[in-house]
Amino acid sequence: MIDGLLQELEQEAQTTRRVLERVPDNKLTWRPHAKARTLGELALHVATVPGAVAEFATEAQVQAPEFTDPSPKNAAELIPALDRSIATAKKVLGGMDDKTLTATWRMMRGDRELLAVPRVGVLRSIMLNHWYHHRGQLSVYLRELGVPVPSIYGPSADETPFA
Fold this sequence. Notes:
The chain is mainly α. Helices cover 52% and strands 10% of the residues. It has one domain (2-144): Four Helix Bundle (Hemerythrin (Met), subunit A), CATH 1.20.120.450. The chain has helices at residues 2-20, 39-56, 78-94, 98-102, 119-144, and strands at 61-63, 104-109, 112-118. Strands 1-2-3 form a 3-stranded mixed β-sheet. It is globular, with a radius of gyration of 17 Å. The relative contact order is 0.19.
């Protein structure tokens, strides 16, 4: 079970790297709407999701986190942050067996249970799907800024990997 997650993580990390490499240093404070994250906040979130969520999923029961949106000082911080995040996720996931993956994981807010699912569900949904969602948002930010968007699952308007 874990081998499939690790393989997907590695493949998607390469795609995420291509998106993060396009983030312009001079636009980190740009945001498409007053309620949206800045480009820098979103890009750093995309870079750090896998490692943070993998670590979050190691405990059987956790308290719902309070979210903050740090921003990088510059775009050069993004790829090293991604590399650290992927290394952490691989290390954490590599230590999990099927019993660990199928065990119930709980998220609480005080004494109230918010979520109770098999740990593999947390990794699939909150680590991977959540990561892809925000990477998609980031690609829209890049498009709005006039930055060429890389191919993700096929051609983009700017890049055709099959040509």
